[in-house]
Amino acid sequence: MNLFININEDFLKNKKKLYIFLFCISFISRALVSFYFGDRNLENEWAILVSNLYNNNVLSMLKFGDLIVPNLWMPPVYAYFIYLHALIFGMGENLADYIIASQILVSSLTTIIFFKIISQFCSNKISLGGAIIFSIFPLIVYSASQISSVTIYLFLLLLFILLILNLINQSFKTYWHYLIIGFLAGILILTRRDFILIYFFSIFYSFIFFKVQLKKIFLILIVTSITISPYLVRNYVSFNKFIIHSGFGYNLWKAYNVNAKVEGYYEESDELKYKISLVKKDINYRINEDKIYLDEAKKFIIQNPRETITLFFKRLFSIFFIDLESTQKNYYNVLHIAPNILIAIFSLVGFIICNKKDSKLNYLILLMLVLLMVYSLFALLPRYKIYIIPFQILLTLKFFEYFLKKLSKNY
């Protein structure tokens, strides 16, 4: 405690040294975890996607004879992130190591972005403490060692949030700022489907509460549209329709079927397998297959409203606290559940006592609530918690800031 309080003020004011310090802590923690626990190979959907892209110049997970069906199932950005490494280093057995090394660098930079966000709401000392928590938080550290889009998405998401928060700062209100926001939003839409909701919420909030001019809102929308347009054109040429992603029906079905728990259920019944087997194996296979999953999910929701609502609230509890019914390996390791429980409790108190009149803080709180609602609607994997943690850390800091002020008044 004394070490934290007596941090040299000159160090806190020297941003360059501060950023290097945070980067080093983040880099070392992620490198160590990756060395012992990191993925060593491309597996499952990423291996298939990148292999087809590398060997056949088609981003695809599915093939019927000579017909290669272009991918709609997985958002493309992370696949191209891997593909870039394959172009540079080849498709050899060490490819995963190069990808993880890049993710360690990206995740270490994410800590600095997070510090820049929370320093807008807390003192430098409190913010440094929060950034250190972020840099060594087990789930965030571990995610950098896995072949998953989580690390890239978190980096891009926090960068987007930082840029949105800076809209209220006059020194950042240049046209380049809006162009970057629009471009970044387009990349994020092509990284995760749920960002579409975050995007429109952020645009609406910026217009209403940050007083961003309508012409600049349109500029962001135009640049975003231009950014995603090559992928839209590619899909229109392939499927004769403007579509970004498929798979909504499948994701909904995973979350709502007779065997579903918080983390969903992935094994189709014999009846569902038969319906899927009847889908024509052509270019529109994925789209038509997804419609069957969607119909099954809708049927379950309509026939089982009580179970549907129960699953929603179980997921809401699970993503904010922990999943009490998880079947994931090592989920209940104390290094995983203890930090999650503690930060959930402190952030809940922080949410109650924080200043609700701050429009910037309200943006982050509402954004967290949007994320909580979205992820509670679908099958919940443990790694999705990572997108809530930055908001929980900030609210935890607000709690400790309030507690320390009260403590100083009493002494």
Structural description of this entry:
The structure is a single chain. The protein has a two-stranded antiparallel sheet. Helix 3 packs antiparallel against helix 6, helix 6 packs parallel to helix 9 and helix 9 packs antiparallel against helix 10. It is globular, with a radius of gyration of 22 Å. The chain is mostly helical. A hairpin with a 2-residue loop joins strand 1 and strand 2.
Task: Using brief descriptors, characterize the structure shown.
411 residues, mainly alpha, two-stranded antiparallel ribbon, 19 helices, 2 strands
Q: Would you kindly provide a brief summary of this structure?
A:
It is built from 19 helices and two strands. By secondary structure, the chain is mainly alpha-helical.
Main structural class: mainly alpha
What's the tally of helices?
19
In N-to-C order, the SSE pattern is: HHHHEEHHHHHHHHHHHHHHH
The rounded Rg comes to: 22 Å
Strand line-up in the sheet with most strands: 1-2
Mean pLDDT: 94
Any low-confidence stretches, pLDDT <50, length ≥5?
A: none
What portion of residues is helical? 55-70%
| Terminal-residue CA separation | 16 Å
**Largest β sheet strand count, sense and barrel closure:** 2 strands, antiparallel
Strand content: under 5%
Number of distinct beta strands? 2
* Anisotropy-based shape: globular
